[in-house]
Amino acid sequence: MSEENKNNQPDPTLANVANAWRQEAQDVTLNNMRVLSNRDAFKIGEKEYTRKLLKPKELVQLNKIEKTIGETPDLDDEKYMEYLFQQAQLCLKDFTQEDFDNCDVVMLQSVVSACQLATKGFRRIQ
Q: Which terminal Cβ of the chain has fewer Cβ within 10 Å, N or C?
């Protein structure tokens, strides 16, 4: 062990690995958002859902939920799941509580994020 590490200094190798991992995660997320934000249909688990065309009031609701989540750093998991369900209902046609209770929630988070990005112009116009 080097003298530097004996003095409780961070190991530069671990920092480099962590930075590389973070960059890879960011790259994967960006690629996923590029793909998903340009779709109108999404497969979540065994079921397929269609993106809703949001009316102004629905977009306002979606933005309010997104803002609340962003402004609540200590948001507990249960409340976050409530907000995610509300967002999914706004973004996806015919999305029910039963769908939510049985879905791949990680995929749902990605789809909801992509739908939100699409409302902010992160979508190719054809």
A: C
Q: What is the pLDDT of residues 6-42, one digit of tens each?
A: 567 767 788 787 888 888 888 777 777 787 888 889 9
Q: Which of 125, 90, 89, 88 is nearest to 110 (CA)?
A: 88
CA–CA separation, 97 vs 86, rounded Å?
Answer: 10
pTM over 0.85: no
Tracing tokens 């961070």 back to the chain, one arrives at 10
Residue 104 zone, left/alpha/beta (φ > 0; ψ -120 to 50; rest):
beta
Rounded to 5°, angle at Cα 17 from 13 and 23: 145
